[in-house]
Amino acid sequence: MITTFEDFVELPPKDLKDYYAVIQDPRSLQTLWEQVQGIEIGKKGLPTGVSKFGNWDEFEAETSMIWANAYHYNEDDSEIFNLAKELEVC
Fold first, then answer.
1. Are 26 and 11 in contact (CB under 8 A)?
2. Domain ranges of the chain
3. pTM assigned to the model
4. Which of 2, 3, 10, 49 is at a distance of 20 to 30 A from 84, taking alpha carbons?
């Protein structure tokens, strides 16, 4: 099976109000990338080139929030839940 990160690249659309009611601190691979590049979340502009993360543990903790949010919002054994489990170990 080919694993894809596509469902985790961007945040869910803002009109998915129940997601944002349940998930207080949404994460996506795009927001993670912006933090690595030193782009302030929610602001457009040039990257500072200074990562938000001071070490790999901080990066891993932030990345883990993507999977934790998927587990919290989606039903156990749903497609997204299982994809998050698979990607977490990659």
1. yes
2. 56-90
3. 0.83
4. 49
